[in-house]
UniProtKB/TrEMBL annotation:
GO terms for molecular function: lyase activity; peptidase activity; single-stranded DNA binding. It comes from the Bacteria. The keyword Lyase applies. InterPro entries: SRAP, SRAP-like. PANTHER family: ABASIC SITE PROCESSING PROTEIN HMCES, DC12-RELATED. It comes from Auritidibacter ignavus. Its EC number is 3.4.-.-. Pfam families: SRAP. This is Abasic site processing protein. Keywords: Covalent protein-DNA linkage, DNA damage, DNA-binding, Hydrolase, Lyase, Protease. Belongs to the SOS response-associated peptidase family. GO terms for biological process: protein-DNA covalent cross-linking repair; proteolysis.
């Protein structure tokens, strides 16, 4: 799964890495080394535009790639309130096409969620002095320091408590797709490490896959949507295996109030408090 991540680069750097256009509006993207669900996060989307000098996409039409900010936790249009997103910050690839919360978005509202890296907790043998499961946090990132682009979905939700002519009425929200972690003994080594870290992992995309995933045309049926999801799943292990690295970090990451670059620094596991 993906429950905490890092996004600490300037908006201009993110736009360049995504191959997107400079946003028309002023986006405030603050450094955040402990992004948790319900926070605002960056997403990358493509939308069709009229024939101008824009780039021509694979769908044969004119598209514009953009960066926006979205509430992390997908809120479908039929949800009663924003709190719905507290349980939809991840979407399982195995059920995303059929689950009511996601099935509409996967056909027409796909995005990429860029991160500098993400945290995951590995269960260890034994319990702590307080009787809880021993766990070790790890930080997963790309070897070259470039952002990871996870497959995601987005939705617009209208807040019924806000006037219809108030632009704050509309909330953009997002979720990250997850898949089964690699099998133990997988190669390269980082895939074997991911296998022991958690039974789920967020699905990264290479450049070609992201181009297909972001294409804005609406898929007409569930079979088409499933085929596209399967494409993302099929390349995820290779993308992670070619690019990713991981190392243990301080348990301080477990408190969302802790926020700073020190959270991503490697530590010796035997020196961590509370293990």
């Amino acid at each position: 799964m993906c429950g905490r991540f890092v996004m600490a680069r300037a908006i201009g750097d993110l736009v360049a890495a995504a191959g997107a256009h400079t946003p028309d509006e002023q986006l405030e993207l603050r450094e955040d080394y402990n992004v948790a669900p319900t926070k605002d996060v960056a997403i990358v989307v493509e939308r069709p535009v009229e024939a101008t000098s824009e780039t021509t996409g694979d769908n044969g039409g004119q598209v514009r790639r953009e960066v926006h900010l979205a509430h992390w936790g997908l809120v479908p249009g039929w949800a009663k309130d924003l709190s719905f997103g507290s349980r939809t910050f991840n979407a399982r690839s195995e059920t995303v096409v059929t689950k009511p919360s996601f099935r509409a978005a996967v056909r027409s509202q796909r995005c990429a969620v860029p991160v500098d890296g993400y945290y995951e907790w590995k269960k260890l043998p034994g319990t702590t002095a307080r009787g809880t499961q021993k766990k070790q946090p790890y930080y997963v990132s790309r070897k070259d320091g470039a952002p990871i682009f996870f497959a995601g979905l987005y939705e617009w939700w209208a807040d019924p408590e806000i006037a219809t002519d108030d632009p704050r009425r509309w909330v953009l929200s997002t979720t990250i797709l997850t898949g089964a972690s690699p099998e133990p003994g997988s190669s390269p080594e980082v895939l074997d490490e991911l296998a022991g870290l958690h039974d789920r992992f967020p699905l990264p995309m290479n450049q070609l896959t992201m181009d297909h995933w972001l294409a804005p045309e609406k898929l007409t049926n569930a079979d088409q949507a499933q085929a596209l999801v399967d494409t993302v799943v099929a390349q995820a292990y290779d993308t992670a295996g070619d690019q990713w690295q991981m190392h243990p970090v301080s348990t301080a990451v477990g408190n969302v109030r802790n926020n700073g670059p020190e959270l991503t620094k490697p530590v010796e596991t035997q020196h961590l408090p509370g293990l």
